[in-house]
Specification:
The protein is mainly alpha-helical. The protein has three domains: 48 residues; 33 residues; 55 residues, no CATH class. 66% of the residues lie in helices and 5% in strands. The protein contains six helices and two strands; from the N terminus they run αααβααβα. Strands 1-2 form a two-stranded antiparallel sheet. The chain starts with a helix and ends in a 6-residue tail after the last helix. The relative contact order is 0.07.
Length: 149
Amino acid sequence: MKAAHLAADLRKAQKAAASAQKEDAALAKEHAAQTAAVASSRAALAALPLDDARVAALEGLVATHGEGVRHWQRHCNEIATSLGYLINFNYADPRPGFDRSAVKGVLARLVRIQRPEHATALEVAAGGKLTHIVVDTEQTGARARFVRG
């Protein structure tokens, strides 16, 4: 009886060993493929014309101009904050395939004032209508519902 159990255990162990060998072979094959891919990538990287002096010069330019860019980004953010109700106009298409060029934008962004001293007069005369949305046709306006974002 003990011999029968041991024989059954031996068969199970042999099956498990065969399965493990197959898995090991598959993993070895994948490892070889990944190693070849790494070698290929390293060769391609080595072939790139990298010049340390040029890289350092470009990093210097990035550092120099980066502060200027950050300054203007802060400035734009300040303006956007103060005029947010005019600038921040986002909308979802009212239906699939909607032609976004049919929406022209917020009236205040479409108007250019020739003489800045007349800006206050225009604001008073237009009232709250400067925040209205301009579209190409009456039908576009009727079909679309805009929610300020």
